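User: quick one - fold this with 5,6-dihydroxy-NADP bound?
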Amino acid sequence: MQNFDYMTPTRLIFGKGVISKLPEVMRGFGKKILLTYGGGSIKKLGLYDKVKELLKDSEIYELSGIQPNPKYDPSVLDGVKISKEKDIDVILAVGGGSVLDCSKAIAAGAKYDGDPWDLISYKVKAKAALPIVDIITLAATGSEYDSGGVISRTETNDKIGYMDPLLYPAVSFLDPTYTFTVSKKQTAAGCADAMNHIMEQYFCEDSTLLNDGFMEAGLKSLMVNARKCLDNPEDYTARAEMMLDCTYGCNAIYSLGNSQSGWPCHGMEHALSAYYDITHGEGLAIITPRWMKHILSEKTIDRFVKYGVNVFGIDCKHDKFDIANKAIDETYKFFESIGIPMHLKEVGIDESRLGEMAHHVAENEGLENAWAPLNEQDILDIFKASL
Ligand code: NZQ
Ligand code: ZN
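Assistant: Sure. Structure tokens for the protein plus 5,6-dihydroxy-NADP:
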């Protein structure tokens, strides 16, 4: 087991109706609030009106229109501008991972005198950030319980995971009923994203029985509950369990003491969604089984056998490579069965820029140091196999 130094300072307030605590929570941070949200789902949900009513005694400024794969320009820049001009005390992010990620970059940018891209690109380390409270409305990223935000810069095709302990939300409200309206497409993509977060921690050199059990349960829970959410979008119990599976996903709690995997599928997918603005979870679902096939070898086989036997119930007496290949096929079939398009061409990506993207990933993601190292040719082969 590896050494670790772990703290998640985020307060989680979970369950039906917990929003009633919002006024009390927000009072602790000050009067001037920057309310951030996306393209309007929170208005359809009635959540926008509810928040405004609960916080009628506060001074609220708004940043709306934050897009999926949130953009540095205009969203981060606009949010930083408002925060500085209005001397904002706290950000209240209401929406999916994109809204929250964008708010994290704004929180750091608001306390920095230079170009916020200096922080996101790790040229400068942030010294302070505004506190963030969020009401998460989509189960997927785990941004509500981690210190990262993923920001896209269109003109350079960059999509950077910006992490800093200053960016943990102070408080996250998790009410599963707010996810009842999430579309089938986004529910399935959220499931694939969260499953991949677990796999990125599971497929590594050094793990423990404890962590393996936790992660295998997480994967099984996601598969069972995502299906239930798709069949009945208002199944509270299924939405609730899926929400927690996702919340645990990215803050390392699933894998404390494990060695690093290098998060290869995320490294590759971030190029796809940077170049083509596709849905992150769909890109991951497409890449994951092709990556698995590509790295399957005598060195990696034992993790795949464990995955196949414990997650998919494949008979452990079979040949090791048969178990591994069946497990990979089951992974593919599961994603396909929940309605995810399983080929890059189906999400608008053809062969024309695969080489360019593979080069970008090889230059920027450090995947030569992953558990199963990937060079530019490996990445290109995985992209080609995903077409
Ligand atoms: O914009 P609105 O109108 O709010 O609609 C959104 C958006 O169109 C909609 N939506 C959200 N909640 C809804 C809803 N529709 C109906 N009912 C609701 N309750 O769903 C669409 C997608 O929203 P988005 O926030 O983009 O989805 P998600 O939460 O999957 O976030 C994806 C982003 O997070 C990044 C991804 O790369 C991507 O940019 N990630 C962030 C991570 C992190 N911070 O730790 C880790 C992940 O690996 C991931 O990379
Ligand atoms: Zn992800």
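One thing worth noting: The chain has a mean pLDDT of 97.
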